[in-house]
Amino acid sequence: MKDLTTPMNQEIDLEKAETMKCEECDSSLFTISYLIKKISAIMSPLGQESLAPIQVYTCKSCGEIPSVFLKELD
Questions:
Q1: pTM of the model
Q2: How far apart (Å, rounded) are the C-alpha atoms in residues 14 and 17?
Q3: Is residue 19 within 8 Å of residue 1, measured between CB atoms?
């Protein structure tokens, strides 16, 4: 496998990186999904209710969102 170069010119060997797996079904395939947060008019800098899409990864097999992503949203 070819090494990737980071912006700091450090090489990363992806063969040594851990493959993330779904906590529910053990699948290693994920797809991009979006959580939608509703922002109240009081909290919004525009003074109007608005929606904020947040990109997350969901398991392609069972649809679960890995807990590591949900922790960042709480």
A1: 0.66
A2: 5
A3: no
Tokens of 63: 């649809």
- Run means of pLDDT, 10 residues per run, the chain, 74 residues: 60 90 96 94 90 94 90 72
Q: Tokens in use for 17?
A: 């990186």
- The continuous run of DSSP H or E covering 70 comes out as helix 67-71
How far apart (Å, rounded) are the C-alpha atoms in residues 18 and 71?
A: 20
Tell me the residue type at 18: E
Q: Which of 34, 10, 12 is nearest to 2 (CA)?
A: 12
DSSP 28-39: --EEEEEEEEEE
**What sign results for the dihedral spanned by CA atoms 19, 22, 23, 25?**
negative
